[in-house]
Amino acid sequence: MKIVFDYNRTLFNPDTDSLFPGVLELLKNLSEKCELYLVSQFEAERQKKFEKLSISHFFRSINFVEKKTRELFESIACGEKDTVVIGDR
After folding, report:
1. Which long-range contacts (CB under 8 A, 24 or more apart) does 9-14 make?
2. Is residue 39 exposed (0-12), middle (13-18) or buried (19+ Cβ within 10 Å)?
3. 89: helix, strand or coil
4. Which of 17, 28, 38, 73 matches a 20 to 30 Å C-alpha distance to 51?
5. How far from each other are the two terminal CA atoms of the chain, in whole angstroms?
6. What is the reported pLDDT for 89?
């Protein structure tokens, strides 16, 4: 199974400038069973904060993009039906 996470307001709380409670444990547990991917809107500060969190090792790929597109998600899914996208919207 592939799981695609949004970053801001899904894993990271910009109001507290930290990960939401339980995120580290969640990523650890899921990465042992699933392929994890990250897709987030590009903002320089957002990417810098992500890098400081030292969670990149949980993800197969990390994509900070100008625009989230259907094609991007399809390329990550790569035809696999068991792909889940988790975001705040």
Report:
1. 9/88, 10/86, 10/87, 10/88, 11/38, 11/55, 12/49, 12/50, 12/53
2. buried
3. coil
4. 73
5. 21
6. 79
Three-state SS for 16? coil
> Phi first, then psi: what are they for 30, rounded to 5°?
-70, -35
Q: Which two tokens stand for residue 31?
A: 């990465």
Q: How far apart are CA 76 and CA 86, in angstroms?
A: 14
Read off the pLDDT of residues 5-32 as tens digits, 9 standing for 90 and up. Answer: 999 999 999 999 999 999 999 999 999 9
DSSP output for 22-88: THHHHHHHHHTTSEEEEEEE--HHHHHHHHHHT-GGG-SEEEEESS--HHHHHHHHTT-S-EEEE--
Q: Which amino acid is at 2?
A: K
